[in-house]
Prior knowledge:
Layout: H1 22-32, H2 35-42, H3 46-52, H4 55-61, H5 66-80, H6 85-98, H7 110-125, H8 161-169, H9 174-179, E1 181-188, E2 195-202, E3 205-207, E4 214-222, E5 241-249, H10 254-265, E6 272-278, E7 281-286, H11 301-305, E8 309-313, E9 328-339, E10 342-356, H12 364-374, E11 392-397, H13 417-424, E12 433-441, E13 454-455, H14 457-467, E14 471-473, H15 474-481, E15 485-486, E16 493-494, E17 501-502, E18 506-513, E19 520-522, E20 525-528, E21 531-534, E22 538-540, E23 546-547, E24 556-557, E25 560-561, E26 589-590, E27 594-600, E28 605-611
Parallel strand pairs: 3-19, 4-8, 5-13, 9-12, 14-22
Antiparallel strand pairs: 1-2, 1-18, 4-5, 6-7, 6-8, 9-10, 11-12, 15-18, 16-17, 20-21, 23-26, 24-25, 27-28
Helix pairs in contact: 1-5, 1-7, 4-7, 5-6
Amino acid sequence: GFDLSSINSMPGVVGLTNHNTCFMNSIVQCLSNTDVLAEYFVLGQYKNDLKNCRKDRSKKYGTKGEVIELLASVVRSLWTVTYSQDMTKSLKDSISKYGAQYKGSNQHDSQEFMLWLFDKMHEDLNMQPVKKRSFTRRPSFRKSVSRKPSENGKGIDDVGAATKLAVDLSPTSFIQKLFQGHYRSSLTCPNCKKRSDTTDPFLCVSLPLKQRTTRPMYANVVYLPNKRRSGIGRRHMAGKTIKIGVSVPLDGKIIDLRQAVAAECGIHSRLLAFVDLQHDGFHKAYGDDYSLSDFPINNSSTTAANMSLYAFEMPPIAKMTAGTLPRNFASSHKKRATLGGKFGKEGKRFGRPLVFRASRDVLSTELQCMILNQMSDQLKNGVKHERMGSLFRLQVKDGIPNKSYLSQQAQQPLRLPTVDKALENCPAGGPLHIKLVAEWDTDTKFFISTFQVEVQDSVRLQKVLHQQPVTCTLEECFDLHTQVEELGADNAWLCPHCKKQQQGTVKKLSLLTLPDILVLHLKRFRVTDGRRTKLCTRVEFPVTGLNMSKHIFSGEMNGHISPQSPKSYNWNPAFASHLPEMVGPEDHLYDLYAVCNHFGNLNSGHYTACCSNPLNGKW
């Protein structure tokens, strides 16, 4: 033992040297402030367990006690205030020795490291008798232990079933005794209505967070001129380009955005074409199945103001003759530098985007006049486009590569094969159309008025709505974790009674037993279409008196009354001196004493630990 009175500074309040090992140090600090575990290490009680452990398992699956000895040395140094950075360096070297993933100085997930450490410590301290289980060892003690249901649907009903369940739930190491609890997973067949129960051990409960179900999207809507509008929209917006904001499902697609924009603008959803229009022209056209997750979720005003997503309102298709182009046009303009009378390679978009319809038999000069007529409100005073001559050439987007320009010598340019190709490439879901870029001589821009996108108030409203933090309680997280789930076709279950794969199976997860030390993990990262984003949900939790009673399963487990408390376990007497009084079923209360925080994102960040010192209770 050691004498705390001989220590001048507060024991346990010592920082650990970081060399990109904050993921390890934060967990060590939390374990050091776990009073029962700290006493186990500081007083050397672990040494007796190392002597009596299963050497074969420790050698094959553990670290032969090396990591435990070094961890105990670090914990003891924190409580005797004798820590030096060489101690954590030695611990990190040993961890890298037995865990190849921890070699080097890369950052890692602290929760994954904690489970790895628990696994190695368990194997080093494992006192499971050789004759206790005759079947092959599971790959990990965290794996599921299944129970075959009986013919009556209540599970195992042989004479020794209750004893066997208690033995299976009993711990075989000090780590399991402190941190391990058990889930009860119940599957109910939708056909025969019979239930099958399984038990699954856990060392850490990973809780889902309440999430926002919608996200903001901003688009520049290009309205048709008033005379071409279908009559269901807002007249005062005719001919304008207006930025709007809408809410769409978090996992939504363009079809969801299409419906939201249509509702906001009073435009038929199938008359909207969504494109990526940047400073140098069209880049991409979006079909209904395009995922919105490719658009970053960012509420900053700068990002919203520079969005390149455009929604063009197209005129409804009228009756068409053989010579009518059964498509709509969306066009943009950009200037090109001139060199010897030829167009250069660099350009920048200017002017307002236009939408119009033309016959496929239109002549080149007629097509140019149509574009200039559409631009009449953008031409500066005193400019008559009839006198401006041949000012631009037209490029068809998504046409035939290297043949995308409409020849000015062609009698009917819209009959060219590159136009046919562009029509074939028109994305599904929206109106059929082609996209043209008018490339102007650089001097022409001086004839055209400046153009600005108006911003609708819906942009501000969406920012305010989605900037408000999502808040939930720890109780709500547990409710989400244990809510009833209906398994889909991808998770069809083989019912042992029906002997068939069953869809629509009802799954219910509950807590069968609770450990003395309950470790909770908040699932802060969300995966959407292979992309992971960090959730900023605010979780409210009690510092003292977390009552877990409502989440404990009470009833029959495979036909037998389930154990309600660690007291009902088949305890190994060898460990009895190490454990405090365990709570009973009437008192499943927990007090918070340590928090491991992560700051940053998936790729980078920093871990810190905030702990309550067990000597004075100060954080």
